[in-house]
Design a protein that fits this description.
By secondary structure, this protein is mainly alpha-helical. The chain contains ten helices and two strands, in the order H-H-H-H-H-E-E-H-H-H-H-H.
């Protein structure tokens, strides 16, 4: 009986040992195959960079698809790249003075104005135009509202007629860039240059710019721009200039016919009869 039990135990031990050895052999061979497959893939990717690029793109696409969808109110960390604003203290003293003065007068934040002032000075340097003239046109045209639009379709800071000068926006991406402050400034200055070259002087060029070249009167437009240009030039020179808000547009006074009383008519008739 003991011999039978001993023999059975040895058989069971041998069976278990064989299973364990077989399992480890399979696992070992499996890892070896996986290693060979990895080596093969790495060699293939090294030999074919296009396959490596395609694999990376698919992996990135898969990872992006696994990311949770952002909430509608989530903020984007790169939003600062789209912001047209800067610290005025980073500007040269002359430009900072102009930015602060315009901010007080037109009640616009000084940070976005700082970018516009710096850009006006850069454009002025390249085009030989006085930057304070460029800023004066923006002040009169839109009061520094980059989304302004007139009833005739002039748009943006410098109120450029996009349906007339749409070709000038093509290299920037189309006419919708008229509402990008920097793009609008650059296109507006191009239009201004053409007007001055055609008219022969700044004042006459402003009449062309506002579309009053063939009209007897420009409604005081050129005078307003040149007056603001003069004030900005004084600010840039370090002089103290009052920052009174822009005067509201004068409203037409309705003409009311005088009321003639009956007794006045009787007196008028009597005077005529006596004469």
């Amino acid at each position: 009986m003991n011999n039978v039990l001993r023999s059975g135990a040895q058989s069971l031990q041998t069976f278990v040992s064989d299973i364990a050895e077989g399992f480890f052999e399979v696992v070992h061979n499996g890892f070896a195959l996986i290693g060979l497959a990895i080596v093969f893939v790495m060699v293939a990717l090294m030999a074919r960079p296009d396959l490596q690029l395609a694999g990376e793109q698919r992996l990135m696409a898969w990872l992006e698809s696994r990311k949770p969808a952002p909430e509608a109110t989530d903020l984007q960390p790169n939003a600062i790249e789209r912001t047209t604003a800067a610290h005025p203290d980073e500007l040269p003293r002359q430009q900072a003075a102009v930015a602060y003065w315009l901010s007080r007068k037109y009640r616009v934040a000084v940070e976005p104005l700082s970018v516009l002032v710096a850009e006006a000075y850069e454009i002025g340097r390249k085009t030989k135009l006085d930057p304070t003239l460029i800023l004066a046109i923006m002040a009169v045209e839109s009061s520094f509202n980059p989304f302004a639009q007139s009833h005739v379709g002039a748009q943006g800071l410098m109120q450029v007629m996009t349906r007339v000068h749409g070709d000038k926006y093509e290299s920037a991406g189309g006419v919708l860039t008229a509402f990008d402050p920097i793009t609008n400034m650059r296109v507006g200055v191009k239009v201004l240059q053409e007007c001055i070259a055609r008219a022969g002087s700044v004042e006459a060029g402003l009449r062309y710019y506002v579309g009053a070249a063939n009209l007897p009167d420009d409604g005081g437009y050129a005078a307003k721009v040149l007056a603001e240009h003069g004030r900005l030039a004084q600010v840039a020179a370090g002089r103290a200039v009052p920052t009174l808000p822009p005067a509201p547009r004068a409203q037409p006074v309705p003409v009311v016919a005088p009321v003639v009383k009956p007794e006045a008519d009787d007196q008028k008739v009597a005077l005529l009869a006596g004469s």
